[in-house]
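Final report, results section. Input specification for complex C-07:
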Amino acid sequence: MATSSLPKADLTSSGRPVFLPNEIECSILSSVDLECDDIPNFPLLKSGLLILTTHRLLWLPDNNPSSSAAAAAAAVALPLSFVTHIFSTKKSVKTLFHSPRVRFQASLDPSKSVVMTAVMRGKGDTDAFLAKFWENWRARAWENDVQTQTQAQTAVGSSSVSGSGPASGSGGFYTREGAVRMVGVSGILRKEQEMWESTDKSLQEAFQDLNALMSKAKEMVILAEKMRQKLLSGSSSKSSATNDDEVGSKEEMQDWMLSVGIVSPVTKESAGALYHQQLSRQLADYVRIPLERAGGMINLIDVYCLFNRARGTELISPDDLLRACSLWEKFDVPVMLRKFDSGVMVIQNKSHSDEEVFARIKALVTNPDTLRTGISASDAAMTLGIAPGMAKEHLLTAESKGLLCRDISPDGFRFYVNLFPEISTDDVYLVKDYGIYNTWVRVASASRILGWSECRIKDPKPCLGHI
Amino acid sequence: MQKLGDFKLPHFFNYPPYFTLQPVRDTREKQVQLWKDLILDYCRTQKIFVIGLEEEDFALFSNPVIERSLSHEARAAFLSALVSEGRAEWLDKGHRKCLILWHRVQDWADIIFRFVKDNGLEDSVMTVEEIRSGIESRGTELHGIDRTILMRALRVLEQKGKLAIFKGTSADDEGVKFSM
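Structure output:
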């Protein structure tokens, strides 16, 4: 029976709910039971997280690191549009001894409505939650969405008329309101002009004062998202006609738009006591893409910048970031915080292995050229495709494992493959016929002969460095 | 293979990390071992008894071919390693000069003992200076031996009753009476 259960809620791999477009998280309470006596076989929803958003009421099982898949299966969501009534709490002697509860009526299918009860067993401000619940339910944010969506559809329809032909447009040359649509190049230009004007206007308003900026922030994010969508659709439909330059700038534009992107940042206001926990999960979801780009490891400072940029106005402190990262140990997330011996902290994929990096470093230091000259951190950075600071950490780790050893000279700080274990202490002149020491001896003596002859030909000074 | 005078240098003398004090324990232990052996080897073949801590004091401390030289810290570390093993001694409190004992003092005493036996000097008298530069010691390891080391080796023998040291009129004409 369809009414016997609530709709399932999608979760990210780190256990954060997947939000709808424009959906914003408003309040989180922990240790909440969700009960419903009117539905037979109603699942046992005990002591989970209750998340109130502008669009839905979500219930997630509490964090059990071992079974994120099970958690995802059990998570449910009740769209606020289904709610038909919210009961106000009665003050009585009974309520003093009870755990606080919120009761509301919802119609899961049109013919029948049921009464549901959320029992708050944990700490948390139930009254504030109830107030927000009312507020969001009354605000009917989901209806605005439907409107903006239809607007967006008509807008896309009108701008794509010239490209896709009138047949595919939703209303031919006329919009629903009956106004004549702009057709052809002039139409596109006009549309662009209008868009820029409205953008310009909203930008001017936004910068009037900080409060205005804060209230405009959401619109800005939506605007960015819209422009991204438009760019995406534009590039796919006209890819044959555009030249590389345009594609390049479009990609760049998309990058900028993407980096703005967290629509519903976890805030202290919305998450309360669960702030760091929820922040930690959101961060885990967020860093996946930057991590992938950085090759599996990224500096904590870089993440701090990227993450705050994505959050827009709801900035977090470095301390919050660190706490969010250190909470990862307790959750089943695919990323981890790592501290190098030097004190540098990075975020890396759990699947990231040092052995793989070491193998690449070893390959790098044992080729004939680098065998003789060694490598600097920037050489390694270029070959491994990572930041020099990060490369240095890898080299130092490889050194501590005995793979490399260092050479500090006026020329700089370089690393060589570690030959010390290969050298015999019984006979210092012994060079075995095989092995890396033998290769190094041959390469080094060959280069010296070459170096001397070069010196004789040229001015001696420039080649002193590589003798 | 590279040479320093008539001394044959090992290949790794041209390995740049050999001249940087390695921070990793295992690597450093090996590096220190190689340096100790090289310093003792070189001093023995070149008959060097005292080396200073300054870079220009000792030929091995720098390698112009690869343009590398040991830092002060590294030089002190390698010499200290020799001192702690009993193969060297600091001559001053400031640790600026170091006496290298490629033979330990006890070994030097044995060498003197053999020298006396081989030359039939069991009951004779020699000055210290004669042992260092006389006709008898020519061609032996004792020839040109550092005076400090020689005196220490002689004292070891004196304690065993093998000889008696007596003072002359000035410091540089001390004499030795063997009684072996």
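The first strand of chain A starts at residue 25 and ends at 35. Chain A touches chain B at residues 374, 399-400, 402, 405-411, 414, 416, 418-421, 423, 425, 428-429, 431, 437, 440-441, 444-445, 448, 464-465, 467 (CB under 8 Å). This concludes the modelling results for the funded period.
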